[in-house]
Write a structure and sequence with these properties.
The complex is a heterodimer. Chain A is an alpha+beta fold. Chain B is built from 4 helices and 6 strands, in the order H-H-E-E-E-E-E-E-H-H. Chain B has one domain. In chain B, the strands form 2 sheets. Chain B has a 4-stranded antiparallel beta sheet, covered by helices on one side. The radius of gyration of chain B is 21 Å and the shape is elongated. The chains are: A alpha+beta, B alpha+beta. Chains A and B meet through strand 2, strand 3, strand 4, helix 1 and helix 2 of A and strand 4, strand 5, strand 6, helix 3 and helix 4 of B.
Chain lengths: ~120, ~140
């Protein structure tokens, strides 16, 4: 993150008066950032885009981010200050574009000989 | 076939250019896997448990000596709307993204996508309070 001016180079978010002046690992507003070091320790400079959420355990989430320029992935712990609406939106993106019809989920799984069902939701 | 075997053994980038058609059992769940039915020539994860194995540094080079099991930690929708799985190596933590295959267990895929919604990290009370303050109207 652009530390000198304390603003996000992607969405121009600036920390408010009550926000801590610390080193942000990602922008709490857009959850993005600049890809500073790649695998070979070279500067990439592409923008890191949040693509998914990894639920490590119930209270610990990690953000999976992908570089728009070189395609490298990294994970980043979700902070307390992070934008909840953006987090929800990132998590819901795959659900909004399902690769198979959701109404036929059970049917498909049974046809393919797979295990698992959604009955846990209806059980008391 | 003999010549093909020789090529497979000595040609360093063989799997970069050729699909792997071998059958194998999944290292994580023991599911027998054949290369047919994936809808792609590159079977890179188990269709049952969706786990992968850390073999490559770049796709098909078989250059990694880690060999750890890679767990599916997330799914993401690419710009073209297609889903991809994010795998993370249990041993070294390397991340990689792999396209889903036609015969992947849809129930497991959906479970990964639904996981954030069953978690208490984003508390319902806080979101409720947020929507209340979002609806606030300024008093003139």
């Amino acid at each position: 993150m652009d530390l000198l001016r304390g603003r996000c180079p992607i969405c121009n978010w600036t920390p408010g008066p009550e926000d801590p002046v610390e080193e942000w690992t990602h922008c709490p507003n857009c959850l993005g950032g600049i890809h500073e070091k790649d695998a070979d320790d070279c500067e990439c400079g592409g923008s890191m885009e949040p693509v998914s959420i990894w639920v490590r355990d119930d209270s610990h989430w990690e953000l999976i981010r992908r570089c728009r320029f070189c395609g490298e992935l990294d994970t980043e712990p979700v902070q307390e200050r992070d934008n909840p609406i953006k987090l929800m939106s990132v998590a819901a993106k795959p659900l909004a574009n399902p690769p198979f019809p959701i109404e036929r989920l059970e049917e498909m799984t049974a046809l393919m000989g797979g295990q698992g069902s959604t009955r846990g939701y209806y059980e008391k | 076939m003999n010549r093909e075997n020789k090529r497979r053994k000595y040609d360093k980038g063989y799997y970069k250019k050729h699909p792997c058609t071998d059958s194998f059992t999944c290292k994580a769940c023991g599911w027998p896997i054949v290369s047919e039915g994936a809808g792609t020539n590159h079977r890179n994860h188990c269709p049952n448990c969706l786990c992968s194995v850390h073999l490559d540094v770049t796709p098909g080079d078989r250059a990694s000596d880690c060999g750890g099991v890679m767990d599916p930690i997330g799914v993401w929708a690419r710009d073209d709307g297609e889903w991809a799985l994010v795998h993370r190596c249990r041993q070294c933590g390397k991340l990689s993204s792999n396209r889903i295959a036609a015969d992947d267990n849809p129930m497991r895929l959906m479970a990964i996508a639904m996981k954030p919604f069953g978690s208490r990290k984003l508390s319902r009370e806080r979101i409720q309070r947020m929507t209340e303050t979002m609806e606030e109207q300024g008093n003139l």
